[in-house]
Amino acid sequence: xxxxxxGTGYVGLVTGTCFSEMGVHVTCVDVDEHKIEKLKQxxxxxxxxxxxxxxxxxxxxxxxxxxxxxxxxxxHVDIVFSAxxxxxxxxxxxxxxxxxxxxxxxxRHINRYVVVVTKSTVPVGTARKVKAxxxxxxxxxxxxxxxxxxxxxxxxxxxxxxxxxxSPDRVVVGVExxxxxxxxxxxxxxxxxxxDRLIFTDIASAEMIKYAAxxxxxxxxxxxNDIANLCELVGADVNMVRKGIGSDTRIGKKxxxxxxxxxxxxxxxxxxxxxxxxADMGYxxxxxxxxxxxxxxxxxxxxxxxxxxxxxxxxxxxxxVAIWGLSFKPETDDMREAPSLVLIDLLxxxxxxxxxxxxxxxxxxxxxxxxxxxxxxxxxxxxxxxxALMLVTEWKELRMPNMETLQRQMRGRLVLDGRNxxxxxxxxxxxxxxxxxxx
Length: 439
Description:
This protein is of the alpha/beta class. It folds into three domains: about 1-200, 3-Layer(aba) Sandwich (Rossmann fold); about 210-295, 3-Layer(aba) Sandwich (Rossmann fold); about 300-435, 3-Layer(aba) Sandwich (Rossmann fold), CATH 3.40.50.720. Helices cover about 45% and strands about 15% of the residues. It is built from 17 helices and 14 strands. The chain has helices at about 10-20, 35-40, 50-60, 95-110, 125-140, 160-165, 180-190, 205-235, 240-245, 265-280, 285-300, 300-310, 340-350, 360-370, 380, 405-410, 425-430; strands at about 1-5, 25-30, 65, 80, 115-120, 145-150, 170-175, 200, 320-325, 355, 375, 390, 415, 435. The strands form two sheets. It has an eight-stranded mixed sheet with strand order 3-2-1-4-5-6-7-8, sandwiched between helices. Strands 11-10-9-12-13-14 form a six-stranded parallel sheet. Strand 10, helix 14 (about 360-370) and strand 11 form a beta-alpha-beta unit. Helix 8 packs across helix 10. The longest helix is centred in the middle third of the chain and has 32 residues, at about 205-235. The N and C termini lie far apart (about 55 Å).
């Protein structure tokens, strides 16, 4: 089977590479000539464990190719996946400019049947717009070419995306014809040998499933952060609360960890988009509005703690603060909507000096923040001369710091743990003042 993937960002590149690993012939398409040339050389533009190895392997085998011209391959493939970006507009709605650009290109060049699959996260109703756009271009050409549309939302976790794709807990495909259903079933058959987790729905439901899933996970996080803040006020321990409610099989253990807020490319954007979709229909998503507000406030929690500790914002001037962890989550260099960015901005505005360290996101931080912060060589270098230390991302290598080294490096003794992963007793015994979330 031959397919094309338009967009070589996080979703598109992982999708194309994993399909090629299963024997599908894949052409990844992107308008960014520089990125395509780098990919042809085996240089992967994103950090994702295991991805680079698979790109090299399948490029060498000839199953994975890269081009800037969709029109050159459109009539040689059975399926085209649209995996281009859908950045949020100022009002929170998803910008469909790139999605519809792909649809126009397809309509201008197809001469044979193809299934056009939206892989990007898009609002309900987008597939109809894609279909209308393709048909409009066909009408301009005065030709009659059969095609189908489908929706196949992705559920990849950054840092675990390759494993998620190769062993999915479910694959959702929205279709409106039996022909498209059979073709998509054939494409995903190699992934379903052990267990059939392929779920076919109508297209609108498939589009909604993606938003509903991410919004539910975001809701769990904000709920636990709300509970954590209350725990601090009443003297309870959120970790004990988490264990107590997570043992209820109706609730489950996942996504119940309190912290300094969620970030990334999915949760913030998808919550906003679903709120906007509902508003357009005259319906207020009251729960999700609260989820968003809680998360916005939660990103300020560590800053409020350090301000309270020193007795006011003006007391931060001249202080040095170390930041451990910059990416929005471990195992990725993605800093979109990361809590670290909010904290660093507030600290700099208050006159503090900031030293940062992250295992993989240092280059991304340089791209975003330039020389406004000091870039450390490792976690202990970041703590050098620091009056306070903030742990923002729960990277494994940050979980068991050497206390003697930390004592020597830091000038002060304040440790603020935004992910509740450090050992409070060990820090207290070493003379540190330890603050976390919800305890």
